[in-house]
Design a protein that fits this description.
25% helix, 4 helices, alpha+beta, Glutaredoxin
Length: 157
C-alpha cells in the first residue's frame, strides 16, 4: 500500500482519493481551531500562498482527540477556519489520528514515520511531509512551526 491507495473524506461527506494529489508535495497536518497552536494556521496559509503554484498541497485534517479542541462540525469547519484564520488550503472531515478508529491515512503516515517516542500523534498540528514520489520524508512535532520547515519544502519542490 502507498498513500495514493487511500481515500479521505471531505467535510461535505464526499470521498476523494489521495491519488488526486499524485506528483505534488504534500504537507499533511492534524488541526484544531481551539488549540494554543492554532496560530500555526496563519503560517500554513503563508506556505500555501507562497508554494501552491509550485505544486505544494497543504492538507488539513481536523481532530478532536486532544482535550476536545476541535468543537466544530464537519459542516462548519471550513467556514470557521476561513473566517477566523484566513485558511484557503483544503480541509477535510474530522478524523481520529490515534486509537482504534485511527483514519487509514494516519495509520499509513505513522507506519512510515514513527516518532521518536513511538508512533502516536502527540498533539494537534503534527506535520508529515510527503515528496512527489509518495515517500513520507519527514515528520514534525506539533510545536515545529510551519515556516521553520520551508527549507525542507523548497528542497522537494
Amino acid at each position: 500500500m502507498n498513500i495514493y491507495d487511500i481515500s479521505v473524506k471531505k467535510p461535505n461527506g464526499d470521498m476523494i482519493s489521495m491519488s488526486e494529489y499524485k506528483g505534488k508535495v504534500l504537507l499533511i497536518v492534524n488541526t484544531a481551531t481551539k488549540c494554543g497552536l492554532t496560530p500555526q494556521f496563519e503560517e500554513l496559509e503563508t506556505l500555501w500562498n507562497n508554494y501552491s503554484h509550485d505544486d505544494l498541497m497543504i492538507l488539513g485534517f481536523p481532530c478532536n482527540q486532544f482535550m476536545n479542541q476541535e468543537p466544530e462540525t464537519d459542516e462548519t469547519l471550513t467556514q470557521v477556519c476561513k473566517m477566523n484564520f484566513g485558511v484557503t488550503f483544503p480541509l477535510f472531515a474530522k478524523i481520529d489520528v490515534n486509537g482504534d478508529n485511527t483514519d487509514p491515512l494516519y495509520q499509513f503516515l505513522k507506519w512510515e514515520k514513527g516518532g521518536i517516542l513511538g508512533d502516536a500523534i502527540k498533539w494537534n498540528f503534527a506535520k508529515f511531509l510527503v515528496d512527489r514520489e509518495w515517500n513520507v520524508v519527514d515528520r514534525y512535532a506539533p510545536t515545529t512551526t510551519p515556516l521553520s520547515i520551508k527549507w525542507d519544502i523548497e528542497k522537494l519542490i
